[in-house]
Amino acid sequence: MTFGDFSYLCSQFMRYFITFSYDGGRYHGWQIQPNGVSVQEKLEWALSTLLREQISVTGAGRTDAGVHARMMVAHFDTLNIEHGTLNMQHGTLNMEHGTLNCEQLAYKLNRLLPQDIAVQKVERVSDEMHARFSAKWRTYHYYIHTCKDPFLRTYSCEIHYPLDFAAMNEAGQRLMGYDDFGAFCKSGADVKTTLCQVTKAAWIQTSPTTWYFEITANRFLRNMVRAVVGTMIDVGRGRLTIEEFCKVIEGKRRTEAGESMPGNALFLEIIEY
Fold first, then answer.
1. In the chain, what is the greatest distance between 2 CA atoms, to the nearest angstrom?
2. Is 234 a catalytic residue?
């Protein structure tokens, strides 16, 4: 192999998707923070260690502190072949079909990462694929329980007052009739637009005392799901009528919406490409 061939290989970035899940309980969210441990930081550290180069990952979105993900996707680019080693032996480049051994990388990542982060798969994708911008739909679940249960407290929000779920589901139907959700965007958030396309918003009962709110959209604003749930809880308690709920959305002011619910009960469930 000539030096020119070697240079050509090194100039070719390869893009990979990682599908993984995490318990966000001890993290300050997905995105790297200057004063707290994040999921992104842990993943970049593990990849950089295994591939022997500085790896940066781009997530499909970002979750706030304490929020969990049953499915998160991130992409990274690498020059390296076969787990980061360009191994010159007898004038040839030792590589596995020009790509990483994805199954082996996923296995090694799971050995290296903490127990609250689990990699399901690593896969080679086209250079045009983007973890965030190529995603078409995202689905979140927010879990609540209406009776004290020591085994639910970590991943569900305990509600101590009666709720009218029929009214809350009607509010969900009305929610899908709008496309501007500025009322549910965290104040001061750096966003260019507050437009989102919501295709599902419904409360689903799983037992006499447990429910979850399922919402699917093409994108979500910062703190949006927890603010939507908090406002729906106000509807369920009779503090807001359906008409007042609609006026909150139309007003586009965060101060008019309900409180932001605790993050421990929120899960990013599915990302569709």
1. 77
2. no
Cβ–Cβ under 8 Å, residues 204 and 214? yes
Which of 64, 116, 149, 190 is flagged as catalytic? Answer: 64
Beta strand spans in 79-184 (E)? 87-89, 92-94, 117-125, 137-145, 157-158
Contact present, 257 and 188 (Cβ < 8 Å): no
Structure tokens given for 53: 């180069």
Strands 157-158 and 137-145: parallel
pLDDT in tens, 159-185: 999 999 999 999 999 999 999 999 999
Summarize the chain as % helix, strand, coil (round to 5): 30, 30, 40
**Whose structure tokens read 């879990």?**
143
Task: State the Cα–Cα distance between residues 10 and 95, nearest whole angstrom.
Answer: 12
CA–chain centroid gap for 177, Å, is 24
Is the pLDDT at 11 greater than 80? The verdict is: no
Q: Where are the alpha helices (DSSP H) in 23-101?
A: 39-51
d(Cα 68, Cα 117) in Å, to the nearest integer? 10
Q: Which amino acid is at 34?
A: P
Strands 58-59 and 68-78 turn out to be antiparallel
- Geometric angle at alpha carbon 77, from 127 and 1, rounded to 5°: 90
The rounded distance, in Å, linking the Cα atoms of 52 and 66 is 30
Is the whole model's pTM more than 0.85, yes or no? yes
Distance separating alpha carbons of residues 132 and 75, to the nearest angstrom:
9
Give the residue carrying structure tokens 């703190």. Answer: 223
Measured CA to CA, the distance from residue 226 to residue 181 in angstroms comes to 13
Tens digits of per-residue pLDDT, 109-125? 999 999 999 999 999 99
